[in-house]
Structures are given as C-alpha cells and as structure tokens.
Amino acid sequence: MSDKDQKPQDQDLEQGAVDQQTAEPPEGADQQAEETGQGDPVSALQAELETTRAKAEENWNEFLRARAELENMRRRMERDVAQARRYGVEKLATELLSVRDSLEMGLSAAREANADVAKLTEGTELTLKMLNQAMDKFDIREVDPLGEKFNPDEHEAMAMQPSAEHAPNTVIHVVQKGYRLSDRLLRPAMVVVSRQSEGDQSGEGQGKA
Q1: 110 vs 97, 104, 116, 118, CA distance in Å?
Q2: Which mean pLDDT values do the consecutive 10-residue runs of the chain (209 residues) have?
Q3: Are residues 132 and 156 in the same domain?
Q4: In this structure, are 107 and 192 located in the same domain?
Q5: Nearby residues of 98 by Cβ (< 8 Å), 6 or more positions away
Q6: Which residues lie below 8 Å from residue 186, measured CB to CB, with a gap of 6+?
Q7: What is the CA 13 to chain-centroid distance, rounded?
Q8: What is the side-by-side order of every strand in the sheet holding 178-181?
C-alpha cells in the first residue's frame, strides 16, 4: 500500500478523535459545574431565595423587638409622669393641711365671746407665715410690682390715674397680687397704673407753644 493510500485513513482517525473530544466533556466536568453553581441555575436561585428569606425574617424580628421596646418605654414614661403629678400634689396637700388646721383654730378662737384681737392677729400672721413657707418649697412666688414699670406680660391694668409723683406707666397701686410657679405665670397682678397729670400736659403744651 502506498503512502497516498494511508494518509486519508490517518486523517479520518485523527478527525474522529477530535470529534469525540468535542462531543464528550472531560470526566468530572459535571461535578465541577454543579459545585460552582453553573450547572443548575434553579438550585442557585432557590439557595439565594432562602438566604433572602432568612435575612428578611431576621430584620422583621428585629423590628418587632424595637417596636416592643419603644412601647414599653412609652408606658414607663406615662407611668412616671402620672406618679410625679400625683406625688407632687400629695406633698403640697401635706403642707397645706397644717395651714388649714391653723385657720380653723383661729376661726374657732374668733367666735368666742371674749376673743382677744391681739392673739387672733398673731395667729393669723403665723398662719400666713406657714403658707408662705409651703409656697416657697414648691417655688411659688408672688408678683407684687408696686412702684415698678407696668409689664403687660405679668400685670393686668385695672385703671389708670393721673400722678405728678410717678412717671407714666408706673404701678401706683396693687389691687391683687399675682403669682408665678417657677418661670410660669399662674396669675397676673391686678394693678392701677399712673398716667401723666392734666397739669403736666398743659404745662408741656404751653412750653412747646
């Protein structure tokens, strides 16, 4: 057999080997593809979905815990505020009990036939002192602006009177004292305010003329 007759056969064998290598994947290729996740996209998506679900459930549980903590904090704050109000009034009431007792004893003494005015006056002054001490404990201060400049934020003008002795808008009489709780005004002072007298007004008019 000549060389020319052998070459086509050799070429056919070589081509067959190449086709077999192309058609059949190498041994272990399927296992490697499965390990890398490229062989089964559905499994990869399912695994990713499970991971996402687990993360979402974890976040939801954290949200529920945070909401429960906020609700508990709100309830504690409401309870603390209610207790502070109740106990604050209780302390003030305890201070006022002694003042009431003193007033009742003074009134009983005043109703006696031979009531001593001097002792009644002394008892009333003592009662007022007790009341002032109780108010000081709770930072309740009186507003007594006699001789001060009129302040509409703290004073309520009941009337205006001409006065040559005071500058205009000066408090010349306190009808009723005001009171302040710390920085909060409980009641404005009712006052009479001075204004320029008619004589001063005419004098100014003549001077200007």
Answers
A1: 20, 10, 8, 11
A2: 51 53 52 54 89 93 94 92 83 91 93 91 94 93 96 96 94 97 94 84 50
A3: no
A4: no
A5: 130, 134
A6: 140, 178, 179, 180
A7: 91
A8: 140-143, 178-181, 184-187
